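Treating backbone geometry as a discrete language has practical consequences that deserve illustration. Part of our work consisted of pairing the sequence of a single chain with a tokenised description of its backbone. What the numbers capture is local backbone geometry rather than side-chain detail. For completeness, the protein is quoted in full, as a sequence line and a line of structure tokens:
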Amino acid sequence: MNWAIATFYKFVTLSEPAALRRELLELCQSWGLRGTILLASEGLNATVAGDRPSIDALLNWLRSHPEIGPFPHQESTTADAPFERMKVKLKREIVTLGHPEVNPAQQKVGTYVEPRDWNQLIADPEVMVIDARNNFEVELGTFKGAVNPQTHSFRELPNYVDTHLDPAQHKKVAMFCTGGIRCEKATAYLLDQGFEQVYHLQGGILNYLKTIPTADSLWQGDCFVFDERVAVDHRLQPSEYELCLGCGHPVSATEKASSHYEAGISCPHCYAALTPVKRARLEARLRDR
């Protein structure tokens, strides 16, 4: 089976997310889908895999829902199942910024920039380009010249903005992330803090990689994705990375050759923090698998 993978989100007010969760889970299971859908009163955020008819059935059902309506989605394919099962979860936020007052469904967000216009924008020396993803994601790949805020979670980004950016100094700010959802909130936050010219990449990195030919691309490296593929290359095909089960960091083939790599236990990113207690816990988890 060739798995189709659909990634999508929408900030929209959902009146009864708990009821929607029950209905969605039942439908997704009946269609044989796998993946994760997050629901909150502010909207939905999902990456789901299945065969072509099942993916189409889910997208059509959601787009015909009276509270949801049309939304774009990004798509790729893989030969191996990218998820083990289907999960539909209730959350306070569909992407956690830690500022619930920031709601893109109810306030202005940054100016969308199509992939075909992105290269010209970020080549402007007056534009500060910020990678809105976490540090371990940036390490795998990013746009040429982009700033890495070195955050470990998305909720740390507001602190970076407050301490490193100034509306009076940084007149133009462009942001990007994997699929675009984090930038919806991040750019809304910047506008709320007084920044005036704020831009973000429409559809995120995945849309850029799908749209822009490799020869014209300013993307460097691979893109981390939140499924069993771990990371994809410019052709949106799985790259060489695996996840370290000890710390969750992507591990390259070169890092797996390190003496600090032990399958299911540690990698060069977490070896120094491996205590006897943690090792025992991880070894027990391996035995139970």
